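Throughout our pipeline, every protein is held as a single compact record rather than as scattered files. This encoding replaces a full spatial description with a residue-level series of whole-number codes. The remainder of this section carries one protein's record, kept here as part of the documentation.
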Amino acid sequence: MPFVNIGGGTLHHRYRPAKGDAHPIVFINSLGTDFRIWEAVLSALGGEMPMLVYDKRGHGLSDIGSGIRSIDDHVDDLLGLIDHFGFGTVVVCGLSVGGLIAQGLYARRPETIEALILCDTAHKIGTTESWNTRIATVEGKGIEAVVEGVLEMWFTPAFHSARSAELAGCRNMLTRQALAGYIGTCAAVRDADFADVARRIAVPTLCIVGDQDGSTPPELVRSLAELIPDARFEIIRGAGHIPCVEQAEALATLIRDFVASLPNGSKPIDKTPATQRAIGPG
């Protein structure tokens, strides 16, 4: 199990190298999850490109470190990982809060990013009131008090009825999440607004959303795509907020096509992104 110390905190990660000059891609997971949510996507992509996954600060097997005060804390960790691996430029694929972290990275160090894949995310997610309510509930009653509502947003009714074992596993992952990491990241999402950053993004960008996402619905993700110059917008059919679990093959196809569309560069180890159509079953 690979661990690395970044800025005084230990991050759990996994790196899959690849042959050739494929664009390296970094995956950032969502609130209350760890990098295992990307396993099926990584398997579908095989050895086509170098891939790095990691547990965000306060999630999975990573430390809480000095705490989480803002999205910048997560950006610090991501920059540390990129520098640790010596990547020249990367493609960043961020899911939900991971998409906010990706936008925060662009704001901080745009020359690091070759392309962006912003999955089930937005420039601003939720309201101050909604996040404060969730934080107060979790502080008082634990994550168990919100888990069923969260799972309804994460996955479609079809997933709930047909994939009960996977649903149970995801419930376990969420309820075993470190409380401080969850609450700190809730507050970070509450306070984040990257509308101005999105308007300045000048790299190839793919925005993706599940057609039944209850957390960042298609119209919200579309509004992000409309802010970003020349961004592509894709809808995955039969998916909620976590398409990397529910429709991994469809998501991998979009990633593969997007990466293939990127121009080749001469920078040390590479880049990535996409297309535009509704894909998936149905």
Summary: The longest strand covers residues 9-16.
